[in-house]
Design brief:
Branched-chain amino acid ABC transporter permease; 293 residues; two-stranded antiparallel sheet; cell membrane; transmembrane helix; 11 helices; BCAA_transport_permease
């Protein structure tokens, strides 16, 4: 095993895992960019997406990749319902209320799933899980490549939506200045609901893409939640492009530390990189500084 091969393989592993981190992080940054709050239950919605995939596969015997559309639709509906029942009543209050509600929601979701499915790990079968794709002299697991590809498609769709559609432009206007958006006649509550629903959908799709790679269990989303938050801050709060780069950097950092130092230290290395970046650029790699009065 040559040094060059190890570097190349680590880079590929990091980019594909970074694509997974980027996908859940984009959902998180979409919610923050519009609503100016952090969803502390994002990882639990990822977990819910995994369990919905598990249930749908047991009902249909389909490969999880064929279930992307129904899982996405189901997660979008769940996101809209959660917004209507729990989030809408606290809109306009201070950010502490949102933190308390979403942290409480994450605890409730984990507890309910444990009661229904038990804390035991379960698996979702996918034929792609056993397939490796040769890329030059390197090999890459098919599920990781698919996840990275889905991330790219999802980000492009979000970009197109925000730039080319009336609803997307209204979302950008709300993100920039909610008072001005309301003066222009934009129904900001509808924009908040849509942003929250889309953010939850992206978490659910990430969960589906993880089922061929990870076991499904109630607390599986917790580490992805904290990594997603790190990626959002690393790229710059509310910056979708920066969040994608933050996710890719997190994956690459984790892969190289795992290959050259220790797999046990790999997850913690992401937060070390975040700390270093914040010391140099307090607003993240692509974040905007606070405006002066």
């Amino acid at each position: 095993m040559s040094q060059g091969w190890l570097i190349g393989q680590s880079l590929l592993n990091g980019l594909t895992m970074g694509g997974i981190y980027a996908l859940i992080s984009v959902g998180l940054t979409l919610i923050f960019g519009v609503m100016k709050v952090i969803n502390f239950a994002q990882g639990e919605f990822l977990m819910l997406g995994m369990y919905i995939t598990l249930l749908m596969q047991r009902m249909t015997t389909f490969d999880p990749y064929y279930l992307v559309l129904p899982v996405a639709a189901g997660m979008f509906v769940i996101g809209m319902l959660v917004y209507r029942i729990l989030i809408k009543p606290i809109i306009g209050r201070d950010g502490t209320s949102f933190i308390i509600v979403t942290m409480g929601l994450s605890y409730v979701m984990t507890t309910v799933v444990q009661l229904i499915f038990s804390p035991n790990s379960q698996s979702v079968h996918s034929a792609a899980a056993e397939v490796t794709v040769p890329i030059g002299s390197f090999n890459m697991a098919m599920p990781r490549l698919v996840a990275c590809g889905v991330m790219l498609v999802a980000v492009l769709l979000v970009y197109f939506f925000l730039k080319k559609t009336d609803m997307g432009r209204a979302m950008r206007a709300t993100s920039e200045n909610i008072e001005v958006a309301q003066m222009l006649g934009i129904k900001t509550n509808n924009i908040f609901r849509l942003a929250f629903g889309l953010g939850i959908t992206m978490a659910g799709i990430t969960g589906l893409l993880l089922t061929p790679i990870y076991f499904v269990y109630p607390t599986v989303g917790a580490p992805f939640k904290t990594i997603a938050m790190a990626c959002v801050v690393l790229g710059g709060l509310g910056n979708i492009g920066g969040t994608v780069i933050g996710g890719l950097l997190a994956g690459i950092c984790e892969a190289f530390v795992g290959s050259y130092i220790s797999f046990d230290l790999a997850p913690g290395s992401i937060y070390l990189i975040l700390l270093i970046v914040l010391l140099v650029k307090p607003n993240g790699l692509f974040g905007k500084g606070a405006r002066k009065a």
